[in-house]
Specification:
The protein is of the alpha/beta class. The chain is built from 5 helices and 4 strands. It has a 4-stranded mixed beta sheet. Helix 1 links the parallel strand 1 and strand 2. Helix 3 crosses helix 4.
């Protein structure tokens, strides 16, 4: 059986300095896919946006008035069980670039590490993971840490 090709579509209309995040994001998606024993090809969008867009999306969809670092909008393909497709569009992950830069500086690690963390966090949300209680949070955050460690994306 040939390996599945998972796809990350990067949208960076503001031309932020995201280095080789397009390559890294596909490695992240593949690592999550392997860990979760995916059955079909996955596709997801990573969208880098500004604070104004982030706050507008947060107000519109979450009714919260602050600049989030990451927002996820999952597609629920399970709503269409009769469609015979070989690819699952997981949805969109919006990353606020300036917030990522600030958090990388605050936490003392690289921007690429922060972008990776935010992307994994958003990706897991599109897959149904959450952190509404301590049990869910532990499962989700342990998985995030495991994927980052597998790929050698460390805090320092």
């Amino acid at each position: 059986m040939p390996a599945k090709i998972n796809i990350v579509n990067i949208y960076n209309d503001h031309n932020y300095d995201i280095k080789n995040f397009n390559i890294l994001s596909e490695k992240i998606l593949n690592a999550v896919a392997i860990k979760l024993k995916q059955k079909i090809t996955w596709c997801i969008a990573a969208i880098f946006n500004d604070e104004q867009t982030s706050i507008e999306l947060n107000k519109m969809y979450r009714h919260k008035d602050y600049v989030p670092d990451v927002l996820s909008f999952g597609n629920n393909d399970d709503d269409f069980p009769n469609i015979n497709i070989d690819i699952r569009d997981l949805g969109d992950v919006y990353i606020c670039y300036s917030k990522a830069v600030a958090q990388a500086q605050e936490y003392g690690h690289s921007l690429i590490r922060e972008l990776s963390f935010l992307f994994i966090h958003g990706l897991l949300h599109t897959l149904g993971y959450d952190h509404q209680n301590s049990v869910e949070e532990k499962v989700m955050f342990d998985l995030q840490d495991e994927i980052l460690n597998i790929l050698g994306i460390t805090r320092k």
